[in-house]
Amino acid sequence: MKRLMAFLVGIVGLGLAVSSATALAATECNGAPLSGTIAGGVVVNANDFCILDAATVYGGVQVNPGGILLACGSTIYGGVVSNGAVNVLLGAGEDEPADCLGNVISGGVFINNTAEEGVVPGAPTIAVERDIVEGGVHLAGNKGRVVVASSVINGGLSCKKNNSDLDNEGTPNVIAGRITCEFGE
């Protein structure tokens, strides 16, 4: 029995060593548009402008303070987390910026403490437009204009201490779950 236990412990140890050696690091997105399949997630650091264009991201997207994210027509497995970004634009209206298609996000969207003014001309600071979000959308402490429009959100929509009400630009959302946000006129 002791030999069997030693053998099993050895096999488990070998499995952990192999799996940790093959772990993938996040891809830093900083200027050139990313498309195709991206394993290990995406990170957007301060002063980086990330464009996900028809990308399939495994491992989620993290936007660090000062980062800018524009995701168009992409599939993101693992959700989107942002704290202190300048802009987070997930899909966009037909004209802002130039026909950015919606995304499929398998996971939640957590956007906190975004800047008062973004850098993308004509766009809000935060946009969740024409997206399908399998988890919830959570918006807290954001200073700029927030648009949540034409999206399907399967895990609820929550807001806390944002400087303004949300705008749906006249195109309502389909939201399953609890809604704690106010939409302005």
Compact summary:
The protein has 185 residues and is mainly β. It has one domain.
| Helix/strand structural class | mainly beta
Percentage of helical residues?
10-25%
- Indicate the mean pLDDT: 86
- Radius of gyration, whole Å: 19 Å
Morphology call: globular
N-to-C SSE series? HEEEEEEEEEEEEEEEEEE
- Residue stretches low in confidence (pLDDT < 50, at least 5 long) are 1-22
The number of distinct structural domains comes to 1
What is the number of helices? 1
As a percent range, the share of strand residues is 35-45%
Cα(first) to Cα(last) distance is 72 Å
Biggest β-sheet description: 11 strands, parallel
Question: What is the total tally of β strands?
Answer: 18
Give an account of the 3D structure:
It is a single chain. It contains 1 helix and 18 strands. The strands form 2 sheets. Strands 2, 4, 6, 7, 9, 10, 12, 13, 15, 16 and 18 form an 11-stranded parallel β-sheet that branches. Strands 1-3-5-8-11-14-17 form a 7-stranded parallel β-sheet, with no helix packed on it. It has one domain (25-175). The model is unreliable at 1-22 (pLDDT under 50). It is globular. The longest helix has 20 residues, at 2-21. With 185 residues, it is mainly beta.
